[in-house]
Structure formats: structure tokens, C-alpha cells
């Protein structure tokens, strides 16, 4: 039925490419808009927008994209300039570097997570929380 096909495509109208279940590709994938992968891909993925890995997607690649949304399996490192979303069916074996991550209950992540833009800012914030600088005197006044 013509009407039922549009409902099954969901938000696919905004996609610039779609690798369907049963398809397998190997190499370098570079794109400007949103791409959804429900099949297999091995290699390198580079994006200027969003990569969506569907539930049946199996990716073995290094990924560089502003936004990465995972519902399937990714083996390899993910570097995202905006955010990474791991849905409950996601499995990621590799490191993630992103300023923001959302991980649903049930998602599996085995790797190292690096957040933030600079270690200098993190250590400065830690120093003030620990009472460094001028704020170290209150502990001495409490002993008096």
C-alpha cells in the first residue's frame, strides 16, 4: 500500500544516503548530510552532520561526525564534535570523544570516554572545588 511505505520510512526524508540491512560496504565514507546505516560497513566514516547506526547496523570503522546516534553495533573509535547518543540496543567497542553523551539503560559501551575540550579547564575547576587558592582558609578557621 502506498500509505504504509511512508510510515515505515520514519524520518528518512532528511537522509542523504541509506545503507540498508543486507548491504555490506568497505572503504571510506564521507558525507555532508545525515546518513543512516542499517547494513554493514568497514573502514572510515567522516561526516559534516549526523551518522545514524540502525539496530541492524554493524560498523567496524573510525568515525568522525558532529552527531553520532547508535542503535546497532560499532567497533572502532567515535569522535563527535556535538554529541553521541547510545540507544538501549547499542553496543560500542572503542573509545568515544565528545562534549556530550546520552546513554540509555541497556546500551553497552566498552572503551574510554573523553569529554570536554581542554584538560586545563578541567583541572582549574577541580582546584576550586577542592578548596585551592584563597578558599583554603575556611578549613583552618573551623579548627579554631
Annotate the secondary structure layout.
Elements: H1 2-8, E1 15-19, E2 24-31, E3 34-37, E4 40-47, E5 50-53, E6 58-64, E7 67-70, E8 73-75, E9 78-79, E10 83-86, E11 91-93, E12 96-97, E13 101-103, E14 108-110, E15 113-114, H2 119-129, H3 137-143
Parallel strand pairs: 1-3, 2-4, 3-5, 4-6, 5-7, 6-8, 6-9, 7-10, 8-11, 9-12, 10-13, 11-14, 12-15
Structural class: alpha/beta
Strand content: 35-45%
Chain-averaged pLDDT = 79
| Dominant shape | globular
Run of helices and strands: HEEEEEEEEEEEEEEEHH
| Tally of discrete structural domains | 1
What count of helical segments does DSSP give?
3
Main sheet characteristics: 9 strands, parallel
Count of distinct strands: 15
Q: Uncertain segments of ≥5 residues (pLDDT<50)?
A: 1-11, 118-129, 132-144
- The share of residues in helices is 10-25%
The separation of the N and C termini measures 82 Å
Radius of gyration: 21 Å
